[in-house]
Sequence to fold (139 residues):
Amino acid sequence: MKWKIGISYGALVWFISFLIEYFIYPSKLFYSPLFEMIMIITFVLIGSIFLILYIKESENFNFIEGVKLGILFFTINIIIEFLTIIIMLVDIFLSGDLMNMLFFNYIVDTWMTNLEYPVLAYLVYPILGAFSGYIYDLE
Fold:
């Protein structure tokens, strides 16, 4: 497994998904199911793109490597998500800046009340990796 590429792609998957989620978050206030559906599609689409890019750079992609890559993407996304939330919560509380309340509401809504949503949504990465590896092995 190409760990540097896998870690880089995993971080990019999180970053791109986060940007999309952050900019469409206000739509959750109007219709939450639409927001969640868009985000699941985003996770699948962005994860698939970087999985394909990884497969193109890999000489011996197989089921095991697909599972490892999916678990790596999942782990990176969870770690970055937790670190980002901790850093931003500390910043909001230390600064007392009420201008960040929209972002604070995003954090509270996403993690404090719906902790299972990001964790379950990120499970798409090991599933994508496993299926891609399986299909690649069939060839």
